[in-house]
C-alpha cells in the first residue's frame, strides 16, 4: 500500500511540475502515472550507477552535479514514455528540481 501511495504522490508531483515548467508536457493522468513508474525504476537502477560514475565531478562541484544527473534521468524517462515530453536541458533541470521539491513536500504533508 505504501508503494502505491508513493506512486500516486509522484504522479501528482509530475502533473504539478508539468503545469509549472513550460518545457515539460504531459498528455494525461495515465501518462503521468506511467511516467512516475518509469521514473521510479530509473531512479532505482540508473541513477545510482550514474552517481557512482560521476563521483569525482560531483565531489568537485560540492554535490551540484547531482541535479544534472536528475535532469538526465528525467529526460530519459521522457524518451521512454509516449506523451511525456521534456524539451531541452534547462527544462529538465528545472523540472528535476521542482519535481523533487513538490514530491518531498507532498510526502511530508501526508506523513503528518
Account of the 3D structure:
The chain has 112 residues and is mainly α. The chain has one domain (2-111). The chain has helices at 2-20, 29-53, 55-60, 65-80, 89-111, and strands at 24-26, 84-86. Strands 1-2 form a two-stranded antiparallel ribbon. The chain is globular, with a radius of gyration of 14 Å. InterPro entries: Phage_holin_4_2 (IPR007165). It comes from Candidatus Blackburnbacteria bacterium RIFCSPLOWO2_01_FULL_40_20. This is Phage holin family protein. Keywords: Membrane, Transmembrane, Transmembrane helix.
Write the layout of secondary structure elements.
Elements: H1 2-20, E1 24-26, H2 29-53, H3 55-60, H4 65-80, E2 84-86, H5 89-111
Antiparallel strand pairs: 1-2
In short:
The protein has 112 residues and is mainly α. It has helices spanning 2-20, 29-53, 55-60, 65-80, 89-111; strands at 24-26, 84-86.
Amino acid at each position: 500500500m505504501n508503494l502505491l501511495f508513493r506512486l500516486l504522490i509522484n504522479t501528482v508531483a509530475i502533473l504539478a511540475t508539468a503545469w509549472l515548467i513550460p518545457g515539460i508536457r504531459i498528455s494525461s493522468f495515465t501518462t503521468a502515472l506511467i511516467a512516475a513508474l518509469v521514473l521510479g525504476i530509473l531512479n532505482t537502477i540508473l541513477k545510482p550507477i550514474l552517481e557512482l560514475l560521476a563521483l569525482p565531478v560531483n565531489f568537485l562541484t560540492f554535490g551540484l552535479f547531482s541535479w544534472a544527473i536528475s535532469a538526465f534521468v528525467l529526460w530519459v524517462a521522457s524518451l521512454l514514455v509516449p506523451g511525456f515530453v521534456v524539451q531541452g536541458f534547462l527544462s529538465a533541470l528545472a523540472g528535476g528540481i521542482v519535481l523533487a521539491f513538490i514530491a518531498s513536500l507532498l510526502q511530508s504533508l501526508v506523513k503528518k
